[in-house]
Amino acid sequence: MNGVDDIKDFTKRIEGIEEALAEAAGGNLFARIKTDPSKPDPLTAIEAGINLILSDLEGETAERLRLAEELQRLRQPE
Known about the structure:
Number of domains: 1
Low-confidence stretches: none
Structural class: mainly alpha
Helix content: over 70%
Mean pLDDT: 94
Number of strands: 0
Order of helices and strands: HH
Strand content: under 5%
Number of helices: 2
Radius of gyration: 18 Å
């Protein structure tokens, strides 16, 4: 790749990061950034880190919902 192609690639990848973050902010915690681990660069680590955070947030949110449902069940009279 040449410098112009590299910049276009980085721009496209940054747009992908923005899209995933916007989806997550809108409540879609299944959003992920497409990564290519075969071509690591500084942006790869950022993409992977954001994906990890989104995955953790997805899991924590599911657990919070599970606990809220369990609490509601326990509060109901038998």
